[in-house]
Amino acid sequence: MTETPTQDPANLTAALAEIRKRRRYLWLVILVYLPAMWGALRISPTYRTIGTVFFVWIILLFAVGIYSALARCPRCGNYFHMHGMTLLYLRKCLHCQLHISADKRAP
Fold first, then answer.
1. Cβ within 8 Å of residue 51, ≥6 positions away
2. Res. 6: pLDDT tops 60
3. What's residue 11's pLDDT?
4. End-to-end alpha carbon distance in the chain
């Protein structure tokens, strides 16, 4: 199901806030890696424990990465961070160049 593009400022603000939220989740998962590995080493310095924590982190990273990559641009309706098979977490839509904080810059 594809969402229809909109130019309504309220919908634009809500959609861009959702994209920013998904990006925050991704960066949070990335930042959790080192503390998680440190905690696993402190609890039990075995390869099994470290491997289990790493495997859980990779699965979580994959899920959140897909969740954030499938965010649609409110202006053009295409995926915000994907262009074909290319996944780039830039601050602009890869199709229409809508900036991620365009709603905050508008007068």
1. none
2. no
3. 85
4. 32
In a domain, residue 73? The reply is yes
Q: Please check whether residue 30 lies inside any domain of the structure.
A: yes
* Residues 75/93, Cβ–Cβ less than 8 Å: yes
Question: pTM of the prediction?
Answer: 0.80
- Number of neighbouring beta carbons within 10 Å of residue 19: 19
Q: Quick one: average pLDDT of 5-31?
A: 88
Kindly report, residue by residue over 35-77, the tens digit of the pLDDT: 999 999 999 888 999 999 999 999 999 999 999 999 999 999 9
Domain count, the chain: 1
How deeply is 73 buried, as exposed, middle or buried, from its count of CB atoms within 10 A (0-12, 13-18, 19+)? buried
The domain in which residue 30 lies consists of 9-105
